[in-house]
Amino acid sequence: MIKITNLTKKFGSQLSLDNVNIEFNKKDHIALMGPNGAGKTTLIRSIMGYYHPSSGEVLINEKNPVKNRTEILDVISFVPQLPPPIKLNLDELIKYIQISSNVDKELILYYANEMKLDIKSNLNKSFFKLSGGMKQKMLIAISLARESDIIIYDEPTANLDPKARDDFYRLLKDNEKDKISLFVTHRLEEVKEIVNRQIYMDLGRITSDDKIKELL
Predict the structure, then answer these.
(1) What is the mean pLDDT of residues 83-110?
(2) Which of 65, 71, 87, 177 gets the highest tally of CB atoms within 10 A of its CB?
(3) What string of DSSP letters covers the chain?
(4) How confident is the model at residue 214 (pLDDT cuts 50, 70, 90)?
(5) 200 to each of 22, 141, 143, 155, 190, how far by Cα in Å?
(6) CA-CA distance, 200 to 150, in Å (whole number)?
(7) Residues 30-40: pLDDT tens digits?
(8) pLDDT digits (tens, 9 = 90+) for 145-187
(9) Cβ–Cβ < 8 Å for 139, 84
(10) pLDDT over 90 at 125, yes or no
(11) Cα–Cα distance between 79 and 170 in angstroms, integer?
């Protein structure tokens, strides 16, 4: 579903991705690891069409994510490490997601409840003013409710307490099916039960790509 060929990305004289070649297919659940500055975030943003390659290409379902960005983003759910400064209250945000992405409101509420997020008491509260953990739970609930073919999480549990982390990984395990899931993480021990590939990046290159187990 995702094919990356000779992908290079420069920011001025800074080389962020150096001739990356890799494929992700259905049922690939990947831990993407590496030190800060390794190119992980640049790779993710290239997949989502945020960055134009300096050379090489990214194809998702044989389509260019820059030229077909709206169409590609329809099949991707993304939860960033730092929640965006959304000024909508939760009620407005849910309605926006419901209309813009054709997502079942009840499914958002279901996953929020599974993440132990009390939406009813916070419906009129601005997303921006929620605690870091509440923001993360809300974004996770939306990402799962969208039922996307590709889900990308950038350190998704950074603001979650241990119980919320357990809930998050339980829900992911229940929703793997034929998806591609990509986790940027420094905690392999957390995701080891739900990933079957471990990819390590450094200096803009993929230095290892190991199949670590067969998922049932």
Answers:
(1) 94
(2) 65
(3) -EEEEEEEEEETTEEEEEEEEEEE-TT-EEEEE--TTSSHHHHHHHHTTSS--SEEEEEETTB-TTTTHHHHHTTEEEE-SS-----SBHHHHHHHHHHHS---HHHHHHHHHHTT---GGGTTSBGGGS-HHHHHHHHHHHHHHTT-SEEEEESTTTT--HHHHHHHHHHHHHT-TT-EEEEE-S-HHHHTTT-SEEEEEETTEEEEEEE-----
(4) low
(5) 12, 28, 25, 15, 16
(6) 20
(7) 999 999 999 99
(8) 999 999 999 988 888 898 999 999 889 888 777 789 999 988 7
(9) no
(10) yes
(11) 17
Amino acid at 177: K
Structure tokens at 167: 């809930």
Phi, psi of 58 (to 5 degrees): -120, 135
User: What is the identity of the amino acid at 181?
Assistant: S
The residue length of the chain stands at: 216
216 pLDDT exceeds 60?
A: no
Q: How far apart are CA 50 and CA 83, in angstroms?
A: 17
